[in-house]
Design goal:
Layout lengths: L11 E3 L3 E5 L13 E7 L10 E17 L9 E8 L9 E2 L14 E2 L3 E14 L11 E7 L12 E3 L2 E3 L54 E6 L11 H15 L9 E3 L5 E3 L21 E6 L10 H15 L9 E5 L4 E2 L5 E2 L4 E5 L1 E3 L11 H15 L6 E8 L7 E9 L7 E8 L2 E7 L4 E7 L1 E11 L4 E3 L3 E5 L6 H4 L6 E3 L18
Parallel strand pairs: 2-3, 12-15, 12-20, 13-15
Antiparallel strand pairs: 1-2, 3-9, 4-7, 4-8, 4-9, 5-6, 5-8, 10-11, 13-14, 16-19, 17-18, 21-22, 22-25, 23-24, 23-26, 26-27, 26-28, 28-29
C-alpha cells in the first residue's frame, strides 16, 4: 500500500480549482468542471538557508511542475532544480532546472513563474534550490503541480479549415473601441497559411480566458520571436495537446495571465497549434516577450533545445509561420528590423536598452535577442538562420535530377519527357515549379510534386527549371541540353523509355523509368 503524505486542510481556494496547501499536505477534493486540475504546494525557504532542499514527497498524480513567486516583476534569483517519480516505473527522473519566464510578459499578472516542465504521469516530487553568495532567496516560493486530465478530443487534433478568408479557428468576439483588426491584401495567397490545429483541437478550456483578445495595430507585426518551453523532450506527439492545455492552465490560474501567452506552439513532430485566441490570421497581442509583445508574434517549440536541435519538420513549420506572418506586413524574414522597447531591458548577450529606445534585431529572432534568457536554447538558436533562409526564399539547391523520354504513339514527331528535380528548401514553401524550354514555359506544376512532364519536338532543346518561392522570389537550375531523337519504328523499342543525349552539369544521375502511365504537365 502506497504511503501518502496528503490530507492537510487547504489554506486557500483558488477559483474553485487550485488549492494552496502546506507543503506536507494536499486535499482529496477533485475538480470536475474542466479536464485539468491544478494543485499548488507552498514551499517556504528561509533567506538564511545556505542551500535548502525539499525532501522527496509522495503526492497525488500530476504531470507538470513549475515554481512561482509573489512578485510578477521579479526574475528568479536562484536556480531551482526538481525531479519527479514516474507512476508507471516508480523511478525518479534526473534533476531538471526550472527556467525563468519573462517577468511582466502579461500586464496585471498575479505571480512570477518559471516555465512549466512536463513530467509525464508522476506521484512524487523533490526540489532543490541553489544560489550564489550574493543572491537572496525570494519569499513565497512554491511548487505548482498540475494534473492535466485526458480528453477524447485531444486524441484527434482538429486541423483548422482553410478558406479564402483564412482559417476557422477560435471565436472572434466583438471588439472594443480600442481594438484593431485587419485583413491583409498582399502578394501571398491564402494557401500559404500552413495547417494549424485550432484551440478546439487541443481542448482549450475557453472559460479560463473570458477576456476579449487584444490586437496590435494594422501592419504592426515586425518580427517573429522563437521560444522553447524549456521542458523535457521525452514526450510523445500524442501528448502535445495535453501539454498545451497544461501551459494554458498554468499561465492563467497560477500566473494570473489572461490566456496562454504564445501565439502559436509547435510540437517536435512539426504540428502547429493555435495559441492565444483571437484568430490565427489576425495580429493577436500575445504575452511572451517583455517589452515587445505589441510588435511581434511569439512561437514556442515544445521541449528544451539547449543541446538538442529541432527536427527538419519543426524548422519547416517555423519557416512557414514566419513567411506567412511577416511578408504581408512588408517584412522579409531574412532582414533586420527595428523594434521600439516598451520597457527597459537587456538580452542574453549583455546588450541593454532603456524605455522608448529603438533596437535592431533579426526579423526572426530567438527570445534571447530581446530578453536575458537562454531561450530558445543554444542548439535551436543556431538553427534560426536556416529558418530565415527558408522563410525568405528564394528556393535553394534547385537542380535537375534526371530527365527521361517515354513513348506516345499519338505524337510520333514529339518526345515526351519527365523531368525530376531536387531542392534544399522544403517543398511546402515552394509555390510552383516551371519547366522552360528555349525561353518558353512549357509546363508548370505545384511545388509539392517531385517531377513534371512535357512534350518536346524532335531536335535539340535547352531546358531548365524555375522554382517560385511562396514569397514570389524565383530561382533557376543550371540549364540542361536535351536531344529528342526521331521515334523508332520498332514497336518493342517504343514500349521502353528512350535515353536522351544530355549536356550540362545539372544531372545527378540517369535513371530511366517507364513513365508512360504518368499524367503530362
Amino acid at each position: 500500500m502506497r504511503q501518502s503524505y496528503m490530507g492537510a486542510a487547504p489554506v486557500a481556494l483558488v477559483a474553485g480549482l487550485a488549492f494552496l496547501l502546506a507543503f506536507y499536505g494536499i486535499g482529496d477534493q477533485k475538480a470536475t468542471e474542466i479536464p485539468t486540475e491544478s494543485r499548488t504546494y507552498s514551499v517556504n525557504f528561509q533567506p538564511t538557508d545556505p542551500d535548502p532542499t525539499v525532501p522527496r514527497r509522495e503526492t497525488d498524480d500530476f504531470n507538470m511542475v513549475a515554481v512561482t513567486w509573489p512578485d510578477s516583476h521579479a526574475h528568479l534569483s536562484v536556480t531551482v532544480l526538481v525531479r519527479t517519480r514516474s507512476v508507471h516505473t516508480g523511478t525518479w527522473s534526473k534533476w531538471l532546472p526550472l527556467e525563468d519566464l519573462s517577468p511582466d510578459s502579461e500586464g496585471g499578472a498575479a505571480r512570477g513563474g518559471s516555465h512549466p516542465v512536463w513530467t509525464g504521469k508522476s506521484d512524487g516530487v523533490e526540489a532543490r534550490v541553489l544560489r550564489n553568495r550574493r543572491s537572496a532567496i525570494q519569499g513565497g516560493l512554491r511548487l505548482d503541480l498540475i494534473d492535466v486530465g485526458a480528453n477524447i478530443a485531444s486524441m484527434h487534433p482538429a486541423v483548422s479549415k482553410q478558406t479564402a478568408q483564412g482559417a476557422e479557428t477560435s471565436a472572434r468576439p466583438a471588439q472594443s473601441g480600442t481594438a484593431s483588426r485587419w485583413n491583409y491584401d498582399g502578394a501571398l495567397r491564402p494557401e500559404t497559411q500552413p495547417p494549424i490545429t485550432s484551440r478546439g483541437g487541443w481542448d482549450a478550456q475557453e472559460s479560463l480566458s473570458r477576456e476579449q483578445p487584444r490586437y496590435v495595430s494594422e501592419h504592426g507585426i515586425r518580427a517573429v520571436v522563437i521560444h522553447h518551453t524549456a521542458e523535457s523532450n521525452d514526450y510523445s506527439c500524442a501528448d502535445a495537446p495535453k501539454i498545451i492545455r497544461g501551459i494554458h492552465h498554468y499561465h492563467v490560474k497560477q500566473l494570473g495571465w489572461k490566456d496562454i501567452g504564445y501565439n502559436f506552439l509547435v510540437d517536435k513532430c512539426g504540428v502547429i497549434y493555435e495559441g492565444r485566441k483571437g484568430g490565427v490570421d489576425q495580429p493577436v497581442h500575445g504575452a511572451h516577450t517583455r517589452g515587445f509583445n505589441s510588435q511581434t508574434v511569439g512561437v514556442a517549440v515544445l521541449g528544451t533545445h539547449a543541446h538538442s536541435p529541432v527536427s527538419h519538420n519543426v524548422l519547416t513549420s517555423l519557416a512557414r509561420l514566419a513567411s506567412w506572418k511577416l511578408f504581408p506586413n512588408g517584412v522579409d524574414p531574412a532582414s533586420q528590423v527595428v523594434l521600439n522597447a516598451i520597457s527597459t531591458g537587456s538580452n542574453y548577450d549583455g546588450k541593454r536598452w532603456g524605455e522608448g529606445e529603438r533596437i535592431r534585431v533579426p526579423a526572426v529572432l530567438g527570445h534571447r535577442h530581446a530578453y536575458n534568457t537562454e531561450c530558445p536554447g543554444e542548439a535551436l538558436s543556431e538553427q534560426l538562420e536556416t529558418v530565415r533562409s527558408w522563410a525568405s526564399g528564394p528556393v535553394t539547391g534547385l537542380t535537375v535530377h534526371s530527365v527521361t523520354q517515354f513513348s506516345d504513339s499519338a505524337n510520333e514527331d514529339r518526345g515526351n519527357v519527365a523531368v525530376e528535380w531536387r531542392a534544399n528548401t522544403p517543398v511546402p514553401l515552394i509555390s510552383r515549379v516551371e519547366l522552360i524550354s528555349d525561353g518558353e514555359v512549357i509546363a508548370t506544376t505545384h511545388g509539392t510534386a517531385s517531377y513534371l512532364t512535357a512534350q518536346l519536338t524532335e531536335g535539340v532543346h535547352d531546358i531548365h527549371l524555375r522554382a517560385i518561392h511562396q514569397s514570389g522570389k524565383a530561382a533557376s537550375a543550371t540549364p540542361v541540353r536535351v536531344v529528342i531523337e526521331k521515334k523508332k519504328a520498332s514497336p518493342a523499342d517504343d514500349a521502353s523509355p528512350q535515353p536522351l543525349l544530355l549536356q550540362g552539369p545539372g544531372l545527378v544521375d540517369h535513371r530511366w523509368w517507364d513513365l508512360s502511365g504518368l499524367p503530362r504537365g
